[in-house]
Every structure is written in C-alpha cells, then in structure tokens.
Amino acid sequence: MTTVTQAPPAAGDSAVVVPPSRSSARLDKIWRVGFGVIVAALLLFLLAPLVVVILTAFNDRLVAFPPQGWSLQSFRSVPGYMFEALWLSVQVAALATVIAMLLAFPATIALVRGEMRGKAALLAFFQSPLQVPAIVQGLALYQLYIALNPFGVALRGSFTGLLIGHVILVFPFILNAMLGRVAAIDTNLELASYGLGAGFLRTTWLVTLPLMRPALIAAGFLAFLVSFDDTSISLFLTQVGGATLPLTLLYTSEQALSPMLYAMSALVIVFSLVLALIVDRVFGLRTVMSRD
Questions:
Q1: Which DSSP symbol is given to 46?
Q2: Which terminus in the chain has less CB density within 10 A, N or C?
C-alpha cells in the first residue's frame, strides 16, 4: 500500500488562510452587538441622573421632570452663601491635596527605597484611614478637638481643623498611587544620576518626579474629588455657618426641595466637567491614566 504525503508549500507560495465559519462569524457579531448594548446601558445609567438634574434646574418654579416651564430664575435665585460654601470646598480640597502629596512623597520613598524594620506595620498605619469609615474618623477627630480645647487649641469649627481631617482622608489615596509608580521606576536611572554627581534633591527633581508625573496628576485629581465630595468628616468638623458645599446642599434640602438646589448642583456638574477638560488639555487624560 502506497502512502501519499502532501508536500509543504514552497517558500514563494502564500499561506492558505482558512475563512471563519458562518457560526463563529455570527457569534462574533452577536458578542459585539451585546457588548455595545451593555456599554450603552452603562453610560445611560451613569449619565441619566446628571441630565435629569441639569434639566430640572431650568424649571420655572416647581421641581418637576420634565420641566414644566423653561427659565433661568433658579440660577438667579442661588444665594451668596452657596458660592461661599463652594469656594470653601475648593480651598479645602486643593490645600488638602497639596499637603497630602507633600507628606506622601517622602513616605513613599522611605517605604519603597528605604531599608528599615517595620515597613509593613508602617504601611498598614498609613493605609488605616481606608479601613475605618469616614464618619468614624470624623467622630474621632471631633472628640480629639474637644479634648484639646482646655489647652487653648481651638480646632473645632475652624478651617485648620477641617483641613487636617481632609488631609487624613485623602492621604491614603495619594500614597497608594505613588507606591505603585515609584516601585515601577528603574533604579538604574537614579543610580546613573548619582553617578554623574547629582545629589538626592537634584535626582529627585530631575529624574524621579518627572517619571512620577502621571501618577501624581491622577492621584491629585482623585484626591481633590474625594475631598470636595466629602460629607462624613466635614459633618463633625464644621459649623452651620461655615459648612462645605455638600453639607450646605444637605442642610438646605432638609428644609425644602427647590429648583435653586438643582441649579447649584448643575453648576457643580459643569465645574467638574471644566476641571476634567482642563486636566485633559494641559496634561492629557491618556498621559494621566498611563502607568508607563
């Protein structure tokens, strides 16, 4: 019996491409359509509340959706204390982010580059605010501030006391972002800088910080939003006359819902979108979210 063996294709012959079967092509099309439907539903779920808030803000007098009458009266009726609360929230969030970054950077260098005992315990201590509910942190700080009053340290209801609470709140977010980025940096780059005669500060400024820029921007943006949106800690550390914007909206909504609340919420949404666009224009969102 003679065995026939098929010769392999010659070097100049092109490879034979087997077209996909009809069933696999149909399944691939169904998967793509299903994935698109899921993404569209997710976007609708995320954006629908924002659209409802913005459209409701244009009601004439009543809180209704769809609006019963289109008007800008709700925007004109926003009281001045709302904008004061907005400015306070921006100040606290910005300062808390900057201070937390200044504290998190040396802590990150010590945890990643340093050789010392108890690094795991120190890291767990730094990340402990993530394990404790924010409302418990606010209550603990409230009790601490009361205990410090007899010693002449008046932090309850002060800007400094509120700022301390927000720094504690956002510090772990920035630290975690920095830890991952510093650990990914090639130490040979820093060693080369030292070998060329640069000191620690010059190496940090010219080598380490530029490589950490995407993580710093992303962490700062996240920390700002976390601080700006906080109510649990601010609830214990502020007074009614000097509350942040989320608390001011909460206090006002407990009395009565009005188009003015939706108008202020719409302005905050626009503010957040403008902030995201500024970050995108200046740094680029792809650069911010990149880990390379």
A1: H
A2: N
Characterise 62 by phi-psi region: left (phi > 0), alpha (psi -120 to 50), beta (else): beta
Domain coordinates in residue numbering, the chain: 78-289
| pLDDT on residue 5 | 52
User: Which pairs count as long-range contacts for 232-236, CB under 8 Å and 24+ apart, including other chains?
Assistant: 232/133, 232/134, 232/135, 232/137, 232/138, 233/134, 233/135, 233/137, 233/138, 233/141, 233/165, 233/166, 233/168, 233/169, 234/138, 234/162, 234/165, 234/166, 235/135, 235/138, 236/138, 236/139, 236/141, 236/142
Nearest to 290 by CA among 212, 192, 229: 212
Banded model confidence at residue 15, pLDDT cuts 50, 70, 90: low
Q: How far apart are CA 217 and CA 165, in angstroms?
A: 22
Mean per-residue pLDDT, 203-219: 83
Question: Among 6-10, 61-65, 241-245, whose mean pLDDT is lowest?
Answer: 6-10
User: Thinking of the domain 78-289, which architecture would CATH place it in?
Assistant: Orthogonal Bundle (1.10)
Contacts 24+ apart (CB under 8 A), 43-52: 50/269
In 3-state terms, what secondary structure has residue 156? Answer: coil
